[in-house]
Amino acid sequence: MNRKIYLTLLVSCIVGLLHAQNVGTYHKAADSLRIGDIRERLIQLAMQNPEFEIADRKLNITKYELNKAKGDWLGAVQGSINLNEITLSPVKGAQIFYPLWNVTVALPLNFYTDKKNNVRVANENVLIATAEKNDRYRKIRTMVLSKYEDYLMNKEKLEMQSRVTQDAYQAYKQSERDFEDNLITNDNYTKAYALYKEQYDKQLEITRNFRVVTYELEEIIGVSIDEVLRKR
Hints:
With 232 residues, this protein is mainly α. It is built from 8 helices and 2 strands, in the order H-H-H-H-E-H-E-H-H-H. Helix 2 packs across helix 6 and helix 6 (111-180) runs antiparallel to helix 7.
């Protein structure tokens, strides 16, 4: 009878694993296109992450600074107008010097070199900010796709383990009835319960891991993953 109980529990667990593998979602080729669309949607949502927004705004600042550097020549021009009471209101008989007024425009000697260098520096800052933005994009893209793979993997693990746990539970309940009918010993009944408890503990751990990776994914994309999946 002891051997019979072990065989029953073993067969139940194997059937559960095979069934879970047949209905799993992680590697189903039929869903590849749909999952691809979901991934693109997740990337778009992740791009709204504050970290990427900061990189985007830094790039805008460098562009403004570049435009400012290109227009700095206006601030470097110094002009003066020589006006006096005589030129404004000539007095009869007073000695008048021509021209009645004059305008002076002066540029610093290093104006052209400074302007050229300032524009170059500003342009380099734009290129650096662009590179930082692209780097941030690649990192966020890798992060969200990796986390989505973790989500799919843990989801399938949970589905598989749920079936294995359910089969172990059914085997345990059967052994409980057999024990009450004096068909098996207390030792066999205890072993059946221990196997069920082991599978149940595994399910608790996998459930916890699935929830954690879900929270981490939703932190990156900023919305509920269930909401994204409903829109596919």
